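[Automated response] Your request has been received and processed.

Submitted sequence:
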Amino acid sequence: MTPSSAPAPRKGSRSKARKRALDILFESEARAEDPLGVLARRVAGADAPPVSDFAVTLVEGVVAHRNHLDGVLSSYAQGWTIDRMPAVDRTILRIGAFEILFSDDVPDAVAIDEAIDLARELSTDDSPRFVNGVLAGVSAGRPTAVAPPAGELLEVPADAEPAPGPHDAG
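Generated structure:
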């Protein structure tokens, strides 16, 4: 079999669940609807693809911890506010950060790789690098300046202090 005729790699069930959670969270934001309401409709809907327990966990977890997740992400995406990020990147980052901070059964490297794959598939050319940098910082628990995508130059005051990270409590 030649490389061009090789079958496409199959996505695992957790990868599909992450994509489904992203779809639900993105849709709720785009329509200004309650994410749990969108989730309930998707779970009950016979005409929509099934929603796995893992996808439900991700959506409910992101909703329950959204303020904390946004604060953490803001501290690692230096020079970026949550509202300024592209919506798909923001949603991918929330899911990835939730897995890193609140899911003991998912290794950080897996959460980061999955988020990068979603960004590569669904966002801009610069998004995978941005997502990787932010989530690597979250995982390491240290502030990491992440360069904005090309074409975006940000002025950050020299005396600006990064927001405390999740591991800075003490």
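Summary generated for your ticket: The CA atoms of residues 58 and 137 lie 20 Å apart. Residues 1-10, 150-170 have pLDDT under 50 and may be disordered.
If you did not submit this request, please reply to this message.
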